[in-house]
Write a structure and sequence with these properties.
Blueprint (H helix, E strand, L loop, with lengths): L1 E6 L5 H13 L3 E6 L4 H7 L5 E4 L6 H5 L6 E4 L9 H6 L3 E4 L5 H16 L16 E4 L3 H13 L3 E4 L5 H6 L5 E3 L3 H6 L3 E4 L13 H4 L7 E4 L8 H10 L4 E4 L6 H7 L4 E3 L9 H21 L9
Parallel strand pairs: 1-2, 1-3, 3-4, 4-5, 6-7, 6-9, 7-8, 9-10, 10-11, 11-12
Helix pairs in contact: 1-12, 5-6
Bound molecules: 3-phosphoglyceric acid (3PG).
Length: 309
């Protein structure tokens, strides 16, 4: 059996060594394709592969159909919108993610970005503090829960709204100290800083639009460490044009990056490359978990983290 690690954005070497160790200890062979830039490189590497580990790499139908022996794809991370799920399901290929493994890294970055933009990108001008600013978490999965915990240290009241959790569910999450919002409108209306934490699905695409953003205060701040497609970019630009103190910080480069930069140089920040999960710890956690999941699946049929049916 052959396992391929295919990462156009490579993991830390510690993580790669750990993955290799798990795969080879199970008696499988290990290959890696790191830092590749052409889809053809991935197509070539997949011809005789039984399992593969990827990150945000685009795994489309052509890639899936070019891998005749492929049985399992593990997305080392949370969001699997980069994998063509119907194409994998059609070929009876199991797709998994590694929930929670990189969430601490993303949660810490949320605060890094909040502070960076609220202190005007450290340009020495007068900025804002986080203390007492109301934080809104849109969705309440692994990352949001960690963000909520850290908020206590900053003395920020936290509100959360999740379309998939009921009020009672959220109340049970009392240990996180969050106040339940009953709708996304209520979340945006009652908070100063909104941080997005939902996956990209058909239901969440373009969910952050003008009407919703308009409920935020004039000096609101939107943080996006999730996916660019959640936001209607032209609506966000309109809000930022109308509100001279509104800020946006993102770890996913928008399509209209150049327009954001030229219109709002001091109120907009994007990391040059998605960096939320790019820590040694997160790489190691997600990468090694992926390797274990592959071994458990190939040896025992354990499909506990399967995301396709
Ligand atoms: C995730 O969905 O796990 C994060 O967006 C991290 O993505 P990455 O592996 O491409 O850094």
């Amino acid at each position: 059996m052959k396992v391929l690690l295919a990462t156009s954005k490579p993991f830390a070497s510690q993580a790669v060594n750990g993955i290799q160790n798990v795969i080879e200890s199970a008696g499988y062979s290990f290959e890696k394709l790191e830092n590749y830039s052409e889809k053809s490189q991935l197509l070539d590497a997949l011809v005789d592969v039984d399992a593969m580990i990827v990150r945000s790499d685009i795994i489309d139908a052509e890639i899936i159909n070019n891998a005749p022996k492929l049985k399992i794809i593990v997305r080392a991370g949370a969001g699997y919108d980069n994998v063509n799920i119907p194409a994998a399901t059609e070929r009876d290929i199991c797709v998994m993610n590694t929930p929670g493994q990189n969430s601490n890294a993303v949660a810490e970055l949320v605060y890094g970005m909040m502070i960076y933009i609220q202190r005007n990108q450290f340009d020495g001008s007068v900025g804002r503090e986080l203390k007492n600013r109301r934080l809104g978490l849109y969705a309440f999965g692994n990352v949001a829960k960690k963000v909520a915990r850290i908020a206590r240290g900053f003395n920020m009241p936290v509100y959360a709204f999740s379309p998939t959790l009921t009020h009672d569910d959220l109340r049970k999450e009392g240990e996180y100290g969050v106040i339940t919002a009953y709708s996304n409108r209520e979340l945006f209306e009652n908070t100063d800083i909104v941080s997005l934490h939902m996956p990209l699905l058909e239901e969440t695409r373009n969910i952050v639009n003008y009407n919703l953003l308009a409920y935020m205060p004039q000096d609101g701040l939107l943080i996006n460490t999730a996916r660019k497609e959640l936001i209607v970019e032209e609506d966000l630009i309109r809000i930022m044009e109308e509100r001279p103190s509104f800020q946006y910080a993102t770890d996913v480069i928008p399509d209209r990056h150049e327009e954001f930069i030229s219109k709002f140089p001091r109120r907009y920040f994007s990391t040059p490359k998605k960096t939320g999960a790019q820590t040694t710890e997160a790489n190691r956690n997600a990468g090694i978990a992926s390797a274990h999941q592959i071994v458990a699946f190939l040896k025992n049929g354990d499909d506990r983290y399967k995301v396709n049916s």
